[in-house]
Write a structure and sequence with these properties.
3 strands, globular, Rossmann fold, single chain, three-stranded parallel β-sheet, alpha/beta
């Protein structure tokens, strides 16, 4: 159980694509490559990352959503 949180409405709706969670443990140096590869994958990617960790110049695909913290149980239900 990850505690309570205020969630955006879209997170309570069934996703149109499979939902993938990217945990905060990804090294900063790898993030540009991860987001570059994500552009070719048909998923909704929910990333538990502060915006300040995204390397300058990195383009996020439209289906990538960032959060500082997401209780994991909200993504699995």
């Amino acid at each position: 159980y990850g505690g309570s949180a205020v969630l955006p409405p879209w997170l309570n709706r069934k996703p149109r694509r499979r939902r993938v969670h990217l945990a905060a443990g990804v090294p900063d140096a790898a993030l540009a490559g991860v987001f570059g590869a994500a552009g070719g994958v048909d998923v909704e990617m929910v990333c538990e990352l502060a915006e300040g960790r995204i390397p300058a110049g990195t383009v996020l695909p439209a289906h990538v959503r960032l959060f500082d913290s997401v209780p994991l149980h909200t993504l699995l239900s």
